[in-house]
Amino acid sequence: MKAMLLKRAFQLITVVWGVGTLTFILMRSLPGDMAYRIAASRYGQDNVDSHAAALVREELKLDQGALTAYWHWLTDLLQFKLGDSLVSGLPVTDALEHMLGHSLLLAVAGLMLSVLIAVPLGLLSAWRGNPLDSVLMGLSSVIRAMPVFVLGVLFILLFALHWNWFPVAGFGTSAHLVLPAITLALSLAAVSNRVVRDSAKRTFQAAFYQFSRVKGLSAWQTFRQHGMRNIAVPVVAFFGIQLVSMIEGIVMIESLFSWPGIGHGLAHAIFARDIPVIQGAALVMGVLFVLLNTLVDIICLWIDPRGAKTL
Amino acid sequence: MRVMPFFKRIFFCVSILSGLLVITACSGPTSSNTVSISAAFEFTSLDPAKNGFVFSRMQVLETLLDVDEKGLLIPALAKDWHISEDAKTWTFDLRDGVYFHDGVLMNTDAVVNSLLIAQSKHGALRNAPIESIQAAGDHSVVISLSRPYTLLGAVLANYANGILSPAAYDKDKEVLALSGTGPYKVFQFAPPHKLVVEKFDEYWGKKASIPYASYLTGHRAESRVLQARSGQVDIVFGLDPASLPSLQRVDALNLYSNPIPRTIVLKLNSGHRFLDDVRARKALSLAIDRQGIAKGVLRIPGSQTEQLLPASMSNWYLDNVTSETEVEAGTPESLLASLGWKKNSQGMLERNGELFELTLITYADRPELTTVATAIQAQWEAIGITTKVEVTNSSAIPMGHQDGSLDVALIARNYGFIADPLGVMLSDFGSNGGGDWGAMNWNNSALSADLLALEQTSDPVKYKEISQRSAQIIYDERPMIPVSSYIQQTSVNTRIKGFRFDPFERSFYLNEMEFVKP
């Protein structure tokens, strides 16, 4: 365990440096003049012109060489400073806190709901087999194939317009969280219920599982003592991956529900060439990735201690 | 003995908690005490130079002068103003008893401070021929100019020149807190999506009756329409015209269609070897089916236009120009044939072995531009011109203008950005062959001279005569090709009364609104 944690701490440092450097190189190599991009985001399309770009270039010293800019970023990072947004002038940490906080809230709520949907359905599907299995397979494919914003619009039509239970979009109250979280949960559960089902089916068919029934344990006892842990390992690992990809990949849901998440914020920062925000966001997400992976590893280790030697 | 105190304690805690909840519920914004607004645009900063539009619309920020619905200057923080005989000195008499949101009384020093800071940042004030901005006594501010400049009043009415409390700025002139003078003050600032304002009881003018107002950025037009339909949002701006029929059936909504001085225009590089002759530019203009675009693409029949400025800006609108006027020039084919273009075996235009190919750039900030661009691409293809459409960022237009790489750009130009359209006309056609968002590599000394003369003309009759002449030159020479004008579609919930639309989009007039009593 200690070795694993040390290894992860080293990974964390390399990820922070690697992600920051890569983002820097990629942003610098994008076509287009940074000063114009930043000016457009700062002053809006009605007010961006070459004077604004010149002012931005002068203020932010964009003419300085890439190496100097990189050195500044690196020395700031060593002092745990992420800098200020080039567009708003506000500290990057404030923006990240606001965006990441909302993204994490939505991601965790979505994941919890998806677990509540996927685990029972997956187990039921593996246990009862056809025709339920095929029906759930079909349903999962349909939901998965549907763009997530279509699902969101359907929920809005039903829950916000028809029944008027929840607000259409926005944030700030728990009611605002419900529809985006359900939308996210359903699109996640469409895949994860299949993972649960496959893992459960594999376990149910395993020789050790059949043997426990033969030796006289009840179905529930068998499931509790021999099923749960075996099914859980791949499922937990999969949920971990889903959580990570979700934090950065829910742009559509964020813009449909006007949710101020990091996916949306990052996309806008890239349009605006707001390098400190991009670097900060990429960095925090890199760190989150390592931390979540570590957490998943620890949980998997706890579920199945046999894996300790390989970690 | 032990049970009673325990229950008492619980009862006490519950009472305190419910009391707190009631107080919180009464003191914070709720749907019953807040007028909620949804529109497409984000904001990121408190600085008026950057995102002043949102604070001006939400009535946090005010300027020395205001603009009425016709674009005429009216008093605001300055109750009166005088222009000297040589038109180089403007004196503004400040209104008495105006408080900033931080409780400080507005005085001449605060106004001078705000204007000097605005002048040092990006904006129209920076380009004005100002020699000095000074306090004169306790009640007046004097702006001295190096030459007569009739636009000054309209420039001062721009949101970037809003007046803030001296304590609002830090030592680097950055805005720390938006302490303006409007009928509402900032309650919650959560960029880029949400702004909540609270009514300001010490306001000098008509005090607001609705305690709170919230602005939420709704990126997707679909979401905004649904917000309007569900009643979650009281006022929704920028509705998709396609959604109007379904919204008309909702009893709880009143719909408003208001023209605004924004036009979809093609910016042409008149120095391009295919476009340097006016006949080529006319052919491109003639080949556009404006009516079809207005009806089929934008779904606002009647919004097609041949002129840059709307009829409401009568000084710049030519009454003699109709859709037939343009046809008199000939057909696109005949005009292009007169320039030596012939169709090849594939039906595409060719001259000296070279195909008529153009790159049209536009930007994604306004989704309608992309669809209009592809419609124009198809319509030009029909006369043999190959057009490559590139969707990029709005900054690509001024950048392409400066480095000369731009062929054609489709833009949505706001001619009311400065309340007097002369401001935008000067930057688009004033000098040096055009402007970042205007004509490109196109010089017309008569127009430049006329526009410069307008800067110094205060006689309305003479002003109209010169501006009409300028509009005629632009129409005849086509350095820019207008396609369609904008109609702002807005829905207002019936629980709100007193809604009024500002064509210059400076104010939501929140302080005039009231909740309809049930």
From TrEMBL, chain A:
Q: How does it sit in the membrane?
A: Multi-pass membrane protein
**Where does this one sit in the cell?**
Cell membrane
- Domain of life of the native organism: Bacteria
Provide the transmembrane region boundaries.
Answer: 9-27, 104-124, 145-165, 177-196, 231-257, 277-303
* One annotated Gene Ontology cellular component of this protein: plasma membrane
Question: ABC transmembrane type-1 domain: which residues?
Answer: 100-300
Write out the entry's keywords from A to Z: Cell membrane, Membrane, Transmembrane, Transmembrane helix, Transport
Pfam families assigned: BPD_transp_1
In the record, what terms sit under GO molecular function?
Answer: dipeptide transmembrane transporter activity
Q: Which family does it belong to?
A: Belongs to the binding-protein-dependent transport system permease family. OppBC subfamily.
Q: What is this protein called?
A: Peptide/nickel transport system permease protein
Protein source organism:
Marinomonas polaris DSM 16579
Which classification does the entry list for the species? Bacteria, Pseudomonadati, Pseudomonadota, Gammaproteobacteria, Oceanospirillales
TrEMBL record, chain B:
Q: Which Gene3D superfamilies match?
A: Dipeptide-binding Protein, Domain 3, Periplasmic binding protein-like II
Please name the GO terms that the record assigns under molecular function: peptide transmembrane transporter activity
Annotated keywords:
Signal
What is the residue range of the signal peptide feature?
Answer: 1-27
Q: Which InterPro entries match?
A: Peptide/Ni-bd, SBP_5, SBP_5_dom
The family database entries (SUPFAM superfamilies) matched by this protein are listed as: Periplasmic binding protein-like II
Q: Which GO terms describe its biological process?
A: peptide transport
- Using the record's annotation, list all stretches that form the Solute-binding protein family domain: 74-434
GO CC list: ATP-binding cassette (ABC) transporter complex; outer membrane-bounded periplasmic space
One short Pfam name that applies is SBP_bac_5
The highest taxon in the source lineage is Bacteria
UniProt protein name: Peptide/nickel transport system substrate-binding protein
Q: Does the keyword Signal apply?
A: yes
Q: Does the keyword Transmembrane helix apply?
A: no
